[in-house]
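Why Divergent PAP2 family protein? Reviewers of the renewal asked for a concrete example.
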Amino acid sequence: MTIFLTGNFVIDVALVAWFAAQSLKILTHYCKTRQVRWRLFFSSGGMPSSHTSTVVSATVAVGRICGTTSPEFAIMLILALIVMYDATGVRLETGRQAVILNYIMDHWRETPPEIFQKDLKELVGHTPIEVLAGAALGLALGFIL
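Here is what the prediction returned.
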């Protein structure tokens, strides 16, 4: 296993997967809208899920180093499943709620309370396909690197 960034193969693989996923968010957004939004590189939500690709690539790296029957792999697999569940469940629902709250705030602009001066972030979670894409990216990079 080659170590090239931090001196820790698992961290290196996870960093590359995160960087790749964040870069792909800019590309997928451009393909949909023909607009380049560089700030997407540091944002959550969108296609593919960088949380998922990061944790899945780290899980694969641990599996390659320690074996898939090791306690370390088991811990990483459980963590990956929790992250993917959270991305498609809690965080996606939070985004849906933000859409509704932003709609309500847009219609109360006549006398806006101070708390309504800033829109809520609507893109905080992932659809199942975005999580699947992040998992596929993490799997691929975990095996390739």
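The helical segments are 9-33, 50-66, 71-88, 90-106, 128-144. This is the kind of structural detail the renewal will allow us to pursue systematically.
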